[in-house]
Write a structure and sequence with these properties.
The protein is α+β, with helices and mostly antiparallel strands. 44% of the residues lie in helices and 11% in strands. The strands form three sheets. A five-stranded mixed beta sheet has the order 2-1-5-3-4, with helices on both faces. A five-stranded antiparallel beta sheet has the order 8-7-14-13-12, covered by helices on one side. α9 packs antiparallel against α10 and α18 packs antiparallel against α21.
Length: 659
């Protein structure tokens, strides 16, 4: 038998150790593809190194691509040296010169440093190959088991925990290693990434990137470490290398295709397609090699190859991810299916949406809005909760699987047992919504439910006791379909038990019950004068109250790179933030600045908002001719929100007399 078709280490084990034997072919049988396909031949001829064959090999010369070393050299030192193996790189010593001793030593140190970096990357190529082959030899991972139901069971059981404590975000100062509440936990990796605009704002470094760098330092890795890695850890290792080192992406793709092509084990080939599909949902290969890989996948024409080809098209259209795949993606890739996610709404209902690796929070907002019959999702956003903290993901282009991947890593690092949760909540009011001009019952219902639950949990605070009593009285009207002639004090006491803020002592609750009953009696008198209160009118009164009393909680924050008032040549200092609500824009020199330190722009003064000709820039034109120029990676979302606000104000929909 030819050496390159020697029996893999997983063939010939005792039958009881082999799972799903229908995926395994006897070692005496020929490879699944005895003849190299035309597309694979073209890929080998144009890209593979001369000593590398097109078929599966337990061990082969590395790197697979002849261009890999050149890319490593260019990325590290800007050189143009030809392909070198690891051993050649180690032997590449600086030549003797007649320069002074000090300069010669400096050159020696510089050349040694470049060679060390090159050797490290070439060893990383070897580590990727070992991880890929180890993943494809795995015997314990079931291939036919998809997504389990634990996520749905726990979500439904705990769906009443919709309102989180007032600790809003994972925060850590960039100059301190402690979290906001003084603990030693690693802060959440849900942070703002430079390369991808998003709505969430989290300060400081998360520690995630440093962990990633540590995992990439694989020089000298031994096979025992790889074999002890879980299946998901192997996938995440290879994906992290590709996400962090662009010059190694083509190498990773071709290593997997080579190990799939002509593999004597159907199970091993199936695992290879699973791995390739997961990577195709994270990052694409280079444009130079992409057509060749697509030809190979098209010519293969199998379930796994077609699935990978479709994911490659999606990643090219929407852009690469920022984090490796999560456990849900691994489960879904086995059966080539989408992922079911439970989304908790503020009325305690759970909506199921189907997502994939390329689904953004904007897509989820539209799906949930459609299921709730909202018409549009403007003002509502996706919130992500873990470890009794919540972060807004907004309604933009942030990939939901990136958030889940980061949350899983955060939970592993901090031994967090609680599962993450995804919520659909109102993030801000538009002028139309704040005025209580209801055009959709479900919008009012979800917002009303969020406000009532937030008051009970302490997320929102009523300053005056009369406001809290009136709020609970209105809840009584909604729950009992209006006011009755005789007010049932037992029902009122039961409502107060669940609706009053948790911080109110139990001994004071009887006083609050009497206050609520008195408020209901006052409402009965007004009802006799004005007519019966409708349920939708009561909910809109609560919405109008919340838009004024809790305006800080319904303000959306964006990060600005710069902000210039052009006529005054006034430029704010860094860092900058833009806080937007239905009344005003606040430009601050710091995201946590107070109103006294902010530059305020009332929405009534804004004439128009439009995107600038330069990337990530937008222009705000005020009545009177003045204008402001801002720069932000979230400029598209800023322009969309402000244009909607200005349109509602100028069209007269903001009828303040209703409020």
């Amino acid at each position: 038998m030819n050496k390159r078709w020697s029996t893999p280490t997983h063939i010939g084990r005792p039958k009881e150790q082999q799972q799903q034997n229908d995926y395994v072919i006897s070692s005496s049988m020929p490879p699944t593809t005895t003849a190299t396909s035309k597309a694979m031949q073209r890929l080998v001829q144009e890209c593979f190194a001369a000593s590398v064959r097109s078929h599966y090999e337990p061990n082969c010369p590395l790197p697979v691509l002849k261009s890999t070393n050149l890319k490593i050299l260019k990325a590290k030192s800007g050189g143009t040296k030809k392909n070198l193996s690891t051993s050649d790189a180690a032997k590449d010593e600086p030549k003797e010169t007649n320069e002074p001793v000090a300069r010669s030593r400096s050159a020696d140190l510089s050349t040694t440093r470049k060679n060390d970096e090159r050797i490290e990357d070439l060893q990383l190529v070897q580590a990727c190959f070992y991880v890929i082959t180890s993943f494809m030899r795995d015997h314990h991972e079931p291939l036919t088991k998809g997504q389990n139901t634990h996520l749905f069971e726990t979500t439904v059981a705990e769906r009443r925990k919709n309102f989180i404590n007032k600790k809003r975000l994972w925060k850590r100062s960039s100059s301190s290693g402690s979290t906001e509440d003084g603990g030693d936990k690693t802060p959440s990796p849900l942070q703002t990434k430079r390369g991808r605009p998003r709505s969430a704002y989290v300060t400081g470094d998360s520690g995630y990137d440093s962990d990633r760098s540590a995992s990439l330092n694989m020089a000298g890795i031994d096979c025992d470490v790889i074999e002890k890695m879980s299946v998901l850890e192997k996938v995440q290792f290879v994906a992290t290398v590709g996400l962090s080192l662009v010059q190694l992406r083509d190498e990773i793709y071709c290593q997997i295709l080579k190990q799939i092509h002509g593999n004597p084990s159907l199970r091993s080939a199936a695992l290879g397609w699973i791995l390739l599909s997961l990577l195709a949902g994270c990052f694409p290969p280079s444009n130079k090699i992409l057509p060749l890989i697509q030809d190979v996948l098209t010519e293969q024409d199998s379930g796994g190859s077609n699935y990978c080809a479709q994911r490659l098209l999606n990643i090219k259209l929407k852009g690469e991810r920022t984090n490796p795949p999560c456990s849900l993606e691994l489960q879904a890739a086995k059966l080539r299916q989408d992922i079911r996610l439970p989304i908790i709404c503020m009325d305690h209902s759970v909506r199921t949406v189907w997502v994939d690796s390329m689904t953004t929070v904007k897509d989820i907002c539209h799906k949930v809005a459609s299921k709730n019959r909202l018409g549009d999702a403007f003002g509502f956003s996706i919130f992500f909760s873990l470890d009794n903290k919540v972060v807004p993901l907004g309604g933009g282009d942030f990939y939901i699987m990136d958030a889940i991947s980061q949350a899983e890593r955060y939970a592993n690092l901090n031994a967090v047992r609680d599962s993450w949760r995804i919520y659909f909540r109102r993030e801000f009011f538009s002028p139309h919504d704040a005025a209580g001009l209801h055009d959709n019952y479900m919008k009012s219902w979800l917002t009303y439910s969020q406000i009532c639950g937030g008051v009970q949990s302490g997320e929102y605070e009523c300053i005056k006791s009369q406001d809290l009593a009136l709020l609970i009285a209105h809840q009584f009207c909604v729950k009992n379909s209006g006011l009755k002639k005789d007010i049932d004090e037992d029902k009122c006491a039961s409502l107060c038990l669940h609706a009053l803020p948790a911080k109110i002592p139990k001994e004071d609750r009887k006083k609050w019950v009497r206050m609520v009953v008195s408020t209901l009696e006052a409402l009965q008198e007004k009802e006799g004068e004005r007519g019966k209160l409708k349920e939708i009118d009561v909910m809109e009164q609560i919405v109008r109250y919340a838009s004024r009393a809790f305006i800080a909680s319904f303000t959306k924050t964006f990060i600005l790179s710069s902000f210039i008032v052009e006529d005054d040549s006034e430029q704010l200092k860094t860092p900058r933030s833009m806080k937007i609500n239905h009344l005003r824009i606040a430009i601050g020199s710091d995201p946590s600045s107070s109103e006294e330190e902010e530059k305020m722009i009332q929405l009534q003064r804004i004439k128009s908002v439009e995107s600038s000709s330069k990337a990530d820039q937008f222009r705000i034109t005020l009545f009177g001719g003045r204008s402001c120029l801002g720069t932000s990676s979230q400029s598209e979302e800023i322009v969309t929100i402000l244009q909607r606000f200005i349109h509602e104000i100028q069209s007269g929909k903001n009828n303040e007399s209703v409020a």
